[in-house]
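Field: COMPLEX_INPUT
Field: COMPONENT_COUNT = two
Field: RESIDUE_TOTAL = 676
Field: MODE = joint
Values follow.
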Amino acid sequence: MADLSGAARSGDFQPPVRPAGKPKTFSCPNCGGSVTVKAAGHSISAVCGYCSSMIDVANENFRILSVANERTRTTLLTIGSKGRLAGIMWEVAGYMEKSDETGVYRWDEYLLYNPYQGFRFLVQSKGHWSLFKVLKKSVAQPSGFSGAFKFEGRKYERFQKGVTKVLYVKGEFYWRVRKDEESYVIDYVAPPYMLSVAKNDEEINTALGEYIEPKAVEKAFVLTTRMPERIGVGPNQPGRYHSEYVARVWYTFAVAFILAAFIQIMSALTAHNAVIFESSYEIDAAGKNQTVSTESFYLPRQSNVEISSYAKLDNEWLELDLALIDGKDDTVKESKQALEFYSGMDYDGYYWKEGDSDKDSVFSAVPEGDYRLLIDTDSGAYYKRQPVTFHIQIKRNVSNWSNYGFTLLLLILYPAFVTFRHTQIESARWSESDFSNLN
Amino acid sequence: MKKFNCPSCGAEVIFQSNVSVYAVCAFCSSMIVRRDIAVESIGTMAALPEDMSPVQTGTEGSYQGARFTVIGRMKIGWTDGVWNEWYTVNENGGRGWLVEAQGFYAVCFEHEDGLPPEAKKTIDKFLQSGKTKDENFNRKESWVGNLRDEMLGSYLFLDRLKYKIADVKSAVCIGSEGELPFIAPKGRKTLTIDLLGHQGEFASVEIAQDKTRLYLGRYLEWKELRMQNTRPLEGWT
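Field: COMPLEX_OUTPUT
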């Protein structure tokens, strides 16, 4: 029982109530306005929302670091507003306007805060948005001329480099933010990602960014003001026609090409090329208005049918209108073949010739059965009152190379288009780069 | 687990870890030091500066499959801010630290073998060996700044891995709560060197007056820590 004394006594004590974590509020040492530090315990610099003085909030002394010489600006995303991006709720804690060394090219950087998730940077440049996270990883810097390197399975290419300057600040920051502070930055891209390596006097920071559609930002922070118009292609803006997609399309094409070639070769090897009818015809000058009918021939099973014609022509033309007629006198297929052959001697004794004295047509998938071919003829010979002689040969189950060629043409259309679009987009993207191979 | 009564207010003080030698009484803020079987008070801990940390003593989390509980904290300050070092004990009795700085979380453990001789040699060279260690704590901030400039980006081999020096700070304990494995009164000074591995590994060399400690671990995302019993935060429910 004696042992209980301690336990019993401690039972009388209620542990002190632990207060919930809350933002820290104090009075601005310059203007007396109320300043709230949202990321209490992290933020060390804060800008007074009333008088824009920069205040040291690293400890309870709240020392003024600088008194503002510029009025408070309104920003697209308001300090203190909240929005959900990539599934996480963020509060806008700080804003920086940055520029390149010349001060001409400017962009916005918002510092986002979530007490559980830490900080992110939401960057807006020329209407393109990216969400960056500082990496706690030692990233091997690329060396050599190419400036390309692999990081977490992706190939990053050097996009731009240069000095960046802080032009304007608002809100609070977990570092000593200073107007006019300069960093040296190199950006690498592997759309939709971007690696940004920043070097200042104190540290080297690598941040990994991912492209965000402007609409997602607009929706997340319920923006009513007009979003900045997207200009050009963003350095890490992803697209339908990215390199991997182009590669995938060509890979698919290669597979289809091999498959088509295989099918073509197989059908060529197994083609019968069997002659089912063959005959020669001589038609006199009066034949112009006559229709020639071949004898009936039998197609033993459904297959394609090739009709080839040949005529010995001497500076002459011959036109054949062919109609394949089945046993019920119905026209199954029709075709026109124009044969012509011209030749002669140039002034300088050069022999020339043009035209074809043979032609063929292929009718695909003709059903089994008896057939005749009706031929209407016309020729220059008739007008010279001369006869015409031609030869007709009909084969079944032939290998058809023109279909194959047509298939290949169709197959290559999409890869060609994709490559074209890819080149167009990439040249637009890289026209903004310091390391472009394209200009 | 050992129970004592606070020598100052009599409330029950529990030492959950048998290596804890120091605790701050949750009731009266007495700093209690354990010596063998007895405890004594060495003064009162002032209230810690407020922050928005979602962690508190009693918060539980996961690291490499083991659940841990936060049992104490040191609040550390340096010229450019503060951070939290939460002392943890896991279900297997393993004791570690959850470091929370600038919204990043790293779980680490004291490396039993201490600093490897090669790494020690490299650091000593930077520290201009020959000077007494004690001087390192009373140097001016400009000295630490110069040291940081020299050390940043250098590599150290620790436990067969290559680490890059990412930060060098002169740090001071600005308060503590719960139980801790060493006496951490306000004003305890250290020189800390933070390092990064290629795969998110975290290492920290802490040069304190009594000894140099090496901590090894890794950075983790909030959701990876699978935290429970977190602290309520105003505006973030």
